[in-house]
Amino acid sequence: MRSSNGNSLHTEINRQAVHMLVALFAVLLRWLSYPQALACAVAAIVFNVFILPRLPGGRQRLYRTDERERGFSMGILAYPVSVFLLLLIFPVPIAAAMWGVLSFGDGPATLAGSLATGGPLPWNPRKTVVGFLAFVFGALPSAAFLFWWTLPNIGSSPPWWRSAATQDSFGSMRIVGIIALSLVTAIVCAFLESLETKIDDNLLAPLGGAIFMMGLIYVFF
To answer: How far apart are CA 84 and CA 68, in angstroms?
Structure first.
């Protein structure tokens, strides 16, 4: 049993490390066009589905026990699908920010929940307060930075966000507003991630957070 637990923890550390490292590609959204960004996301989906499982040690190092038995990982598929949907639907800064939340919020939360002890959340005893806080404090700086970093490329957003009104709303934002916006959204995403639903949290938290962030921008900016 101890060996099994150790292997599970080692797998989780490997998985979340990759989860976070992949988000470094989000910095490219400052320069990629809309079609280029979507093409990269599609390539990531194809890689995770068809290539990653066939790499030496791919399944052993990144798949959880039940996923190895099924031969398929919904979480590993949901990650690039979530990024693709973010890029397909939302303005570039929001898509980038939620990519940061997906990686640097969910990753630390999962590791903190595995490594640290803490009181359970009132609405979900399977999740911990430590994991919730790790999510918020991991998501906040990554979301704020990536939002600010990709603002110059707002013109590469989906066609329905290229209006002058949208460009003015985003162009009027300052760093204090971006940090405040990212903080509130990170808390909302942490809450969504902590819910017990049938929707994979790699989809629920970033997509729900993107909708929430978009609403805040239109109300306050």
So the answer is: 25
pLDDT tens per residue across span 74-129:
888 999 999 999 999 999 999 999 999 999 998 788 777 767 667 899 999 888 99
Cα 78 to Cα 98: distance, rounded to the nearest angstrom:
14
Selection from 71, 25, 29, 20 nearest residue 50 by Cα: 71
Entry pTM: 0.90
The residues facing 128 across adjacent strands are 120
Domain residues for the domain of 157 are 2-220
Q: CA angle at residue 208 from 206 to 210, to 5 degrees?
A: 65
Q: How far apart are CA 99 and CA 205, in angstroms?
A: 10
Structural domain total, the chain:
1
The SS3 assignment for 56 reads coil
Query: Does the CA dihedral 104-123-6-63 come out positive or negative?
Result: negative
